[in-house]
Amino acid sequence: MSEQTGKVDDSQSPPKIQKKLRKGDLVKVDREKYSNSLESEASDTNLPEYIFQGPGEVLLIKGDYCQVRWRRPVPDVWINSDHIVLY
Predict the structure, then answer these.
(1) Would you tell me how many other CB atoms lie within 10 Å of the CB of residue 54?
(2) Structure confidence by residue, pLDDT tens digits, 52-76
(3) How far is CA 51 from CA 6, 38, 43, 62, 82, in A?
(4) What confidence tens digit (pLDDT) does each residue in 17-66 have?
(5) Choosing a second label site near 39 at 20 to 30 A (CA), which of 11, 22, 30, 32?
(6) Is the CB of residue 61 less than 8 Å from the CB of residue 23?
(7) Whose CA is closest to 86, among 47, 58, 48, 49?
(8) CA dihedral of 53, 58, 60, 65, whole degrees rounded to 10
C-alpha cells in the first residue's frame, strides 16, 4: 500500500481564475471587440454612443455576462464581459 499524505500537489490543483470585473466597477464597451463579435451581428447596428464613452456600473455578473447600468434614464443591459473594459 502506498501512503497518502494530506498534501495536494500543485500540478493537481485547478488553475486559479482571476476575475477581471467585479460588482461596482465602472466600465465601458470596447467598440472594436464588440463590433467583431457574434452579438453585434444579432443586435441593432445603430448603438448609442454613451455605451462606448462610459461610465456604466456593473450590477451583477452571471457566467460570461455582466448587467450594466448606465448613468442615464435607460434600462440596464446584459453585455458579454469580453466586450467590457474598465473605465
Answers:
(1) 18
(2) 999 999 999 999 999 999 999 999 9
(3) 50, 18, 14, 20, 14
(4) 556 899 999 999 999 999 999 988 898 888 899 999 999 999 999 999 99
(5) 22
(6) yes
(7) 58
(8) 40
Cα angle 44, 30, 58 (rounded to 5 degrees) comes to: 90
Q: Is 27 within 8 Å of 85 (Cβ atoms)?
A: yes
Residues in the chain: 87
DSSP string, the chain: -----S---TTTSPPPPPPS--TT-EEEE-HHHHHTSHHHHHS-SS--THHHH--EEEEEEETTEEEEEESSSS--EEEEGGGEEE-
